[in-house]
Each structure stands twice: as structure tokens, then as C-alpha cells.
Amino acid sequence: MQVEEAIRSRKSVRQFSSKPVDGQTVRDILEIAKWAASGGNLQPWKVKVLTGEPLSDLVRNVQGKLAKGQMESPEYNVYPPELKDPYRTRRRVVGQALYDLIGVPREDTPGKFRQLAKNFEFFGAPVGLFFVMDRQMEIGQYVDLGIFVQNIMLMAREKGLHTCPQEAWAQWPKTTAEFLNVPDDEMVFCGMALGYMDEEAIINNLQSERAYLEEFVEFHGFSD
Q1: What is the 3-state secondary structure (H, E, C) of 100-162?
Q2: 3-75+118-203: CATH topology
Q3: Contact (CB, 8 A) for 41 and 191
Q4: Which residues partner with 125 through β-bridges?
Q5: Element (H, E) at 167
Q6: pLDDT digit string, tens, across residues 41-66
Q7: Could you tell me the pTM of the whole model?
Q8: What element of type H or E holds 23?
Q9: Burial readout 207-222 (b: 16 or more C-beta within 10 A, e: otherwise)
Q10: Pairing with 22, which of 52, 108, 179, 221 sits 20 to 30 Å away (CA)?
């Protein structure tokens, strides 16, 4: 698979098949992804990989808390509190497109919550990853982490797999840190679902839009 094909075919899959992913495939993906660019070569990431019973245990833990109405507070803002346009509109449009696709009306708040809760089942994926960073790290190192995460998603495509990066897991900082034995000087930043896409699931037909190049790029000094 060419890099362009991997980039264009990557998307956030929200329903996976039950087909297992072997451990060696996950190791191979991470072994290549670790060559991500990293300022000062800090490589400021740690990864916790779950499958089988450990993954099921965590899902049951969180789903049990949700059933009791329990929630936790994120340690950071996933989105800015006062999100301005065009970012606010982009978020609203893609969110509504997802709910329209699966037949959840705008006014169906419980239906939206049920879909949101599927994040905490990794959308049925057989592998869940968590990305952990030392609390000493700052904004530059979060850029490094993002590059590393993108490498994983593109390598997954080369292996015929799909992913869904999940900042939704930031809503469970205490539960995930305790379950994963993360020390106090580190934080769980986000999760990721990894597996084979359910080809029949209508939700996986969602295709988010991208802005035209002219909307976000300025060229200087080129003759053409």
C-alpha cells in the first residue's frame, strides 16, 4: 500500500468485526511507528496494549460505572471551551452527519449518549491502546505524540486494519490510570481502537469533509 492510499483510506471506524488481531501484528505496527519525528528525540510516549480478558475487564468496569450514572472529569479540555468558527461548525456538521447516518434524531439525547458510550467498548475492536505521557511534558511533546499516533494509524492500514483514535477516554482518567497501573507522575492522554472494520456497519460509511487547500495554505515565493 502506498502512503497516499493509507492516508486517504484512514478513517475513524466506529464498528469493528470480532476477528482477532495477533500480537505480532501489533508489535510490528508499533516497531515501525516508533520512528516518528520527536523533538530532541525525547520519544515522550508510552503505550498500554490490551486484548482478551484485560480489555473485557476494563470495558465491564467502565460500563458498570456508566450504568450507575458515574462519570469522571477530564484532566484537559478535548476542545476549547469557547470554540469559534469555522471549527465549531465543522464539529457540529460531522457530529450531525454521524447521527443522521445511524438514524438518531437531533432531539434524541439518550440515543446520542448510547452511541457515545460505545467509545468505552472500543467500538467492538479486539485491541485497545492507551497512550501515556509523563506529566512533565508540555505542548511540544503532545505534537510528538500526535505524530506517533498517526504513524500507528497509517501502519494499521498497511496491515489491512483500521483504527479509531479516542480522546473520549480522557473522560476516565482515574479509572484508566488505576486499571493500567499508571503512576501519579504520568497521565493517560487518549485511547485507540484497533481491529478489522465491520464492512456491513452503516456507521462506517461516514466520510468527514476536508477544507480546500486555499482555505488553510498560503504559498510564498513560488512562480506557479
Answers
A1: HHCCCCCCCHHHHHHHHHHHHHHHHCCEEEEEEEECCCCHHHHHHHHHHHHHHHHHHHHCCCE
A2: NADH Oxidase (3.40.109)
A3: no
A4: none
A5: none
A6: 999 999 999 999 999 999 999 999 99
A7: 0.93
A8: helix 23-33
A9: eeeeeeeeeeeeeeee
A10: 179
